[in-house]
Amino acid sequence: MTDEMTARLGESYRPVIEDNTQLLKTSIETGVRVTGDRELLMQMLVNLMENAIRHCSSGTLISLSLSQGDKAALLTIADNGCGVPSEELPKILRPFYRLEQGRSSVGSGLGLALVDAIARLHGICLDLSDNGPGLKISLAFSNKPNAVLQPQPRYSSDTISVLSARTTSGLRIRKLLQSVAGYLSV
Ligand SMILES: Nc1ncnc2c1ncn2[C@@H]1O[C@H](COP(=O)(O)OP(=O)(O)OP(=O)(O)O)[C@@H](O)[C@H]1O
Ligand SMILES: [Mg+2]
């Protein structure tokens, strides 16, 4: 995945964000590349962008940034929305866990569980923190993907599109999570 793909993702979401009367700020360093399954990495970013859009109110500023640190490329998606209480932060990675405050919105509580599984698969250090106010999610790419990633088969593009479909049933997503978990444990 490259800086260009990250920038393209931001620009694809800009109209959606603006239609939702939210703002997008991007800060993407050129020349940054990370290794991994392109479709899974994009799916991870899509899930995080969708969350910022869906779980934050009108007027929220959503920031997408990519930079190269000494040891790792760092990608962050942050917002200044209502945020997540600190004691709930680790829980929102659990499958089907949704905060009381967001239950009225569409969703099954699986987006972040998938983000977590994809991050583990790639050896990405995933950090959730308070953005004072809002939620900040940082992904530190070591550029040494988990060794198990290499010999495993790629997901077919059909499988990936299932992930992004809003109409996806919980059952199909659950099967997919199981396959990601199996993929990790091999
Ligand atoms: N940017 C955010 N701001 C505030 N709360 C958030 C944010 N992102 C996630 N959350 C909280 O974490 C919960 C879990 O997120 P997750 O992406 O796993 O599920 P979802 O968005 O509810 O549904 P799905 O992603 O399966 O459509 C959300 O329901 C919401 O309560
Ligand atoms: Mg979600």
Structure description:
With 186 residues, the protein is of the alpha+beta class. It has one domain (3-185): Histidine kinase-like ATPase, C-terminal domain (Heat Shock Protein 90, 2-Layer Sandwich), CATH 3.30.565.10. The chain has helices at 3-19, 38-55, 111-122, 157-164, 170-185; strands spanning 23-28, 61-68, 73-79, 125-130, 135-141. Helix 2 runs antiparallel to helix 3 (111-122) and helix 3 (111-122) packs parallel to helix 5. It is globular. The model is unreliable at 147-170 (pLDDT under 50). Residues 47, 50-51, 107, 111 line the site of magnesium ion (MG).
Descriptive key words:
186 residues, alpha+beta, Heat Shock Protein 90, 5-stranded mixed β-sheet, 5 helices, 5 strands, 38% helix, globular, binds adenosine-5'-triphosphate, binds magnesium ion
β-strand number: 5
Mean pLDDT: 83
**Gyration radius, rounded:** 16 Å
Overall CATH class: Alpha Beta
Helix % is 25-40%
Tell me the domain tally. 1
Helices and strands in order, then pairings?
Elements: H1 3-19, E1 23-28, H2 38-55, E2 61-68, E3 73-79, H3 111-122, E4 125-130, E5 135-141, H4 157-164, H5 170-185
Parallel strand pairs: 1-2
Antiparallel strand pairs: 2-3, 3-5, 4-5
Helix pairs in contact: 1-2, 2-3, 2-4, 3-5
The structure holds adenosine-5'-triphosphate and magnesium ion.
Short description:
The protein has 186 residues and is an alpha+beta fold.
